[in-house]
Amino acid sequence: MQIRSKANKIIVNVALILGGILVSLPFIWMILSSLKTDREVLQIPPTIIPENPTFQHFIDLFVSMNFGTYLINTLIIVFFSMVGLLLNTMAGYGFGKFQFKGKEILFAIVLITMMIPGQVTMIPTYLVLNEMGLTNTMSGIVLPGLIAAFNIFLIRQFMQTIPDGLLEAARLDGAGEFYIFFKLIIPLAKPILAVQVILTFIGAWNSFIWPLIVANDEALYTLSVGLALLQDQNVTNYGLQMAGATFMVIPVLVIFIIFQRYVIEGFNVGGMKE
Known about the structure:
Elements (H helix, E strand, L loop, with lengths): L1 H33 L3 H4 L14 H8 L3 H31 L5 H12 L3 H14 L6 H5 L6 H11 L4 H9 L4 H12 L1 H16 L3 H6 L8 H11 L4 H36 L1
Helix pairs in contact: 1-14, 3-14, 4-8, 4-11, 4-13, 5-8, 11-14, 13-14
């Protein structure tokens, strides 16, 4: 029985490794192609490892293109998305741990907004921002994304798993509400916040449709919009396109690697609670 268990474990591990390699191949090919010269990218038969690795395509992104501006705009959106995540966490904490008049009605409204597709609200949101004079501004791009109903819902569900006695004990010791939130709740919520940080970062980093709708000025475009322009303007320059795509993907992988430990911890905590 023990031998069969070990054999099954080996088979599963081998299958996972092979699956991981197959999934990684397109990303590896993209990264390697971004380091090839224009001639080598189009070479038949194709080479796997670059013969003469070069970072010229990455340099061209920032020298010949406006990727420096696109990067700054994207980082601004990411920053305010994280500020929004903090606000959503506070709202989820409030819904999960405080009693106030109209709480259930307000939370029901939050849930209802989750059922409305984002594409449906784009035109009304645009019209409202246009009346406020916020179209073609960074504020108009950032503000609608500050609050996310799904984040509030997920945080609220997690907060309900935290014992009320723990908060009461902190209050009896003289801790204020902000101290409890930042020193007690945030550390306890690391697993769920890690998931939220990853999802929020990916959403902000890949923001495309909304910035394209609101911004008329290229100086307000994000990396995703810039990558689309790059593909339109440099149809045959595959090395430059691969460099742009690599520049978009690598930060997402880095963020996931950083917070992976907390994500796995969240799965373990969830499994023990069930």
